[in-house]
Amino acid sequence: MTLPSIIQPTRGLARPDLHALWQFRELLYFLVWRDVKVRYKQTALGAAWALCQPLMQMVVLTLVFGTFARLPSDGYPYAAFVYAGLVPWTYLSTAVAAASTSVVAEQAILTKVWFPRLLLPLAAIVRPAVDFALSLAAAVVLLAWYGIHPAARLLELPAWLTLEAATAVGLGLWLSALHVRFRDVQHVIPLLLQVWLFASPVAYPVSLVPERWRWLYGLNPAAQVIEGMRGALLNKPNLIMADLPACVALVSVTLLAGALFFRSIERTFADVV
């Protein structure tokens, strides 16, 4: 006879239960698959909608900053330059926004059954990866149209995507836990992402940033990821690569602290949400 399991709340700072996450890995799959199906259900274009946002943003940014403001693009066609930056930015902003509201959005199941609560922000971060893959494929086609062939440097993309996902997870854990207590978070996120967009080299090159400030600029994970992926796609040098170790350390601390914070207060989610 199988003995019943006794679920006890965490006390104080608690480490993430990796064993429980592995046991519930199928739930993570179904949460992601459910969101993907709902996103494209009964749509005429289906998964092609994943390309609409970065493509429309590319057109607008090219007209405003490339044509009217005449911002430099390090010698590359501005449309290709900005799209190579929009691909990682779109994934990062979508993942952070989705993860920040993931716990409150799932309050219907959160209050009825037990499962590792960490699965909710993780699922919200994995789901936009489908759109990222489609946008990345479109970027390769667009670059080929302009005669740009990234070749072997595409092998760098998994490393940059890992840093980007770690950044999204770290911020998502902090924001999703805070959102349960303070619903102001859902109003802060759009403002945060808007400021973060202009603080990252999406529409302009890093070369415009004064050299004396680049060390600080290089601590921005979004700037590192965008510059790194753009460098891999366009085969261009990374001007803030020297600051990458410090950025990775910052992301690691944010991720670890976010996991501890989320895990330590998740016992109150069902009561507060």
Folded structure, characterized:
- This protein has 273 residues and is mostly helical.
- It has helices spanning 18-23, 25-40, 49-68, 78-100, 102-105, 107-110, 119-126, 128-145, 157-181, 185-198, 214-217, 221-234, 244-265, 269-272.
- The longest helix has 25 residues, at 157-181.
- The mean pLDDT is 87.
Note the topology:
Layout (H helix, E strand, L loop, with lengths): L17 H6 L1 H16 L8 H20 L9 H23 L1 H4 L1 H4 L8 H8 L1 H18 L11 H25 L3 H14 L15 H4 L3 H14 L9 H22 L3 H4 L1
Features:
273 residues, mainly alpha, 14 helices, globular
Structural class: mainly alpha
Helical residues, percent:
55-70%
Q: Termini distance?
A: 36 Å
Radius of gyration, CA atoms, in whole angstroms: 20 Å
- Secondary structure tally: strands: 0
Summarize model confidence as the mean pLDDT: 87
Name the shape in a single word.
globular
Largest sheet: none
Given as residue ranges, the uncertain stretches (5+ residues, pLDDT < 50) are none
Fraction in beta strands: under 5%
**What's the order of the H and E elements?**
HHHHHHHHHHHHHH
What is the helix tally? 14
- Number of spatially distinct domains: 1
Short structural summary:
The chain is mainly alpha-helical and 273 residues long. It has 14 helices and no strands.
